[in-house]
Amino acid sequence: MPPPSKIRLQKAEKQLILQYPDSEFTLPAEYLRVYSPSAEVRGHGAGEGTLVSGKMHVGIEKVAAAGRYALQIFFDDGHDSGIYTWDYLRELCEQKDAKWQYYLARLEAEGKGRDPDESAVKFIG
Predict the structure, then answer these.
(1) Buried b (16+ CB within 10 A) or exposed e, 92-117
(2) Residue 98 — very low, low, confident or very high, per pLDDT cuts 50/70/90?
(3) What DSSP string describes 52-83?
(4) Distance from first CA to last CA of the chain, Å, rounded?
(5) Which of 27, 117, 25, 39 is nearest to 82 (CA)?
(6) Angle at CA 64, nearest 5°, toward 59 and 67?
(7) What is residue 45's predicted lDDT score, i.e. its pLDDT?
(8) What is the average per-residue pLDDT within 59-73?
(9) pLDDT range class, residue 117, cuts 50, 70, 90
């Protein structure tokens, strides 16, 4: 997969805009953070990895090329170990809606939330 033709970081809006010859995608920092390809998030083996919660307010400090094959994203919560390959970034772009809904469903199922200042409570009755 070729890299985006243009990458724009909008720090104030907390999003990354990736422009390709055929389309443009806007990826929120929270989405990129919870789908980080780092071992911390994805895990070291098969399975779903770690569910990251409480990242509603996370921002992106900077982005940097990682060789010719990927992008490294530096988040303002200190996370910077994920290397987003061009293929993975395009996957995140094309599957954004489905992946986001899946993430929200996982949060709900595990009684977690997006806001770090709130804790989701699940009532059983």
Answers:
(1) bbeebeeebeebeeebeeeebbbeee
(2) very high
(3) P---TT--EEEEEEETTTEEEEEETTS----E
(4) 50
(5) 39
(6) 145
(7) 62
(8) 96
(9) confident
Three-class secondary structure of residue 94 per DSSP: helix
DSSP tag of 47: S
Burial of residue 17, with CB atoms counted within 10 A of its CB: 0-12 exposed, 13-18 middle, 19 or more buried:
middle
Helix residue ranges per DSSP H, the chain: 29-34, 39-42, 86-94, 96-109
Check the CA dihedral 69-89-13-43 and report its sign.
negative
Local structure of 32: helix, strand or coil: helix
